């Protein structure tokens, strides 16, 4: 059961980083489209995942987790086929939105099935093992994604999902027992999910297009105005609906509230670095996709190794200090990247030190933040808290990618270094600000119930 759910989580959470590696190749295939338009290949997935994650979890409780898990995997496979065969960028973006919604069905249903299978005393261990598996996969994803794109094409990063997904479905049909659906579970707030998607979608559109339209243009200001109006409407729906997209009651716990706020800010920087690293290595240093993936792998491995010690320290001393230290280290790593890299490639002396420091710090911070957000609630609310935190991080991911693509735009040879460095500055501010949020809002020094490794390390 643990391995099956791990495979589903791996496919869902790792899809965005792998597509980031393939971003330059996708852009070349649809060269008539701007980078701003191509960015929706990533952001469409983020937005659908975030909007549907908690909703899908409630539907799984109502109609059956086995049915939702297998159905989500099936839809993910079909969407992956559509992505790989997409004849146009519009079709690819539409298929990615469906893929994000399918991933949102897989994750909470799978966690619910897994937690129900384990005795209460072993659930924390199961969550930690799930996190370790996803962390290992994260470390391998840059080189694997680069290798697939280089050996075949970007389309095969989607086709690979088909083989893995079909195998998981066949195995799941044999392994999973039918669970009793709870028909009395209140239907989730579909309108609230739509309002959330509209709010974040218009914010992302404004960030992506402000470079083309101008920051003071009526269209840019209109996008930001929609966000400003829609966000309070969404929170109002959450406060008054019986089955809200986000249970605001979770945020009465100061640890959960601060950890989620910092997770949002940190995710903006984290995903900004993911896409900007690919842009820098391919556009400034002219690395191939495979070489880019290999260049990012040492940092990912360093992050994986940093996760376990960070979890143990957070367990003994609380997540606050670990989160602050991780954010500060990650910001320092980005400052090193900016200071030590130029237009001439120097990987060992230029990129590698800052890349390792950044990724180790990022995983340390995420270990503390996600662990605090998820495991500070009662055990029976682990899945709910995990879904809320994952959705918040997906929103941060969409904002981070939009900020980078909007800032970098379509650079010339003379501007590409400055623009990618500026994007790293934005990311450094975000990850550093996450540490400041934790420090200023005084997240309790010791979480209510911290768990070693109970996070999706590096995702």
Characterization of this structure:
The protein is mainly alpha-helical. It has two domains: 2-188 and 243-440, MFS general substrate transporter like domains (Growth Hormone, Chain: A); 189-242, no CATH class. 79% of the residues lie in helices and 0% in strands. It has 15 helices and no strands. It has helices spanning 2-29, 35-38, 40-63, 65-84, 89-117, 123-151, 156-175, 190-213, 218-240, 254-284, 289-317, 319-340, 347-375, 382-408, 416-440. α3 packs antiparallel against α4, α6 (123-151) packs antiparallel against α11 (289-317) and α10 (254-284) packs antiparallel against α11. Residues 446-459 have low confidence and may be disordered.
Task: Sum up the structure in keywords.
459 residues; mainly alpha; Growth Hormone, Chain: A; 2 domains; 15 helices
Secondary-structure blueprint:
Blueprint: H1 2-29, H2 35-38, H3 40-63, H4 65-84, H5 89-117, H6 123-151, H7 156-175, H8 190-213, H9 218-240, H10 254-284, H11 289-317, H12 319-340, H13 347-375, H14 382-408, H15 416-440
Helix pairs in contact: 1-5, 1-6, 1-7, 1-10, 3-4, 3-5, 3-8, 3-14, 4-5, 4-7, 5-14, 6-11, 8-9, 8-14, 10-11, 10-13, 10-14, 10-15, 11-12, 11-13, 12-13, 12-15, 13-14, 14-15
């Amino acid at each position: 059961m643990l391995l099956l759910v791990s495979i589903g989580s791996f496919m869902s959470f790792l899809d965005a980083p792998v597509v980031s590696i393939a971003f330059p190749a996708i852009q070349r295939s649809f060269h008539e489209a701007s980078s701003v338009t191509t960015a929706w290949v990533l952001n469409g997935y983020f937005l659908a995942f975030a909007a549907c994650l908690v909703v899908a979890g409630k539907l799984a409780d109502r109609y059956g987790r086995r049915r939702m898990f297998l159905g989500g995997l099936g839809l993910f496979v079909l969407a992956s086929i559509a992505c790989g065969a997409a004849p146009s960028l519009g079709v690819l973006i539409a298929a990615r939105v469906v893929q994000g919604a399918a991933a949102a069905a897989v994750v909470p249903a799978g966690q619910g099935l897994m937690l129900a299978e384990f005795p209460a005393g072993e659930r924390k261990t199961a969550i930690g093992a799930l996190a370790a598996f996803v962390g290992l996969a994260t470390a391998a994803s840059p080189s694997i994604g680069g290798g697939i794109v280089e050996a075949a094409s970007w389309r095969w990063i989607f086709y690979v999902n088909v083989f893995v997904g079909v195998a998981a479905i066949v195995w799941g049909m044999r392994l999973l027992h039918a669970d009793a659906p709870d028909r009395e579970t209140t239907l989730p707030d579909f309108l609230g999910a739509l309002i959330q998607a509209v709010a974040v979608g218009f914010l992302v559109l404004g960030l992506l297009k402000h470079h083309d339209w101008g920051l003071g243009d009526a269209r840019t200001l209109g996008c930001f105005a929609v966000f400003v109006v829609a966000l309070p409407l969404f929170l109002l729906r959450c406060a008054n609906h019986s089955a809200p997209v986000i249970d605001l009651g979770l945020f009465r716990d100061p640890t959960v509230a601060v950890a989620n706020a910092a997770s949002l800010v940190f995710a903006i920087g984290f995903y900004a670095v993911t896409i900007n690293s690919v842009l820098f290595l391919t556009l400034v240093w002219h690395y191939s996709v495979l070489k880019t993936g290999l260049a990012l792998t040492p940092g990912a491995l360093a992050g994986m190794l940093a996760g376990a010690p960070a979890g143990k320290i957070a367990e003994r001393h609380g997540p606050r200090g670990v989160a602050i230290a991780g954010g500060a280290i990650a910001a320092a790593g980005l400052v090193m990247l900016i200071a030590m890299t130029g237009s001439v490639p120097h990987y060992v002396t230029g990129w590698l030190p800052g890349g390792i420091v950044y990724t180790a710090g990022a995983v340390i911070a995420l270990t503390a933040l996600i662990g605090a957000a998820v495991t500070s609630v009662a055990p029976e609310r682990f899945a709910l808290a995990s879904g809320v935190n994952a959705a918040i991080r997906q929103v941060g991911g969409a904002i981070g990618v939009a900020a980078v693509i909007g800032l970098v735009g379509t650079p010339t040879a003379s501007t590409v270094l400055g623009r990618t460095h500026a994007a790293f500055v934005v990311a450094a501010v975000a990850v550093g600000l996450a540490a400041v949020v934790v420090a200023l809002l005084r997240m309790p020094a010791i979480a209510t119930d911290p768990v070693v490794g109970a996070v999706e390390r590096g995702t």
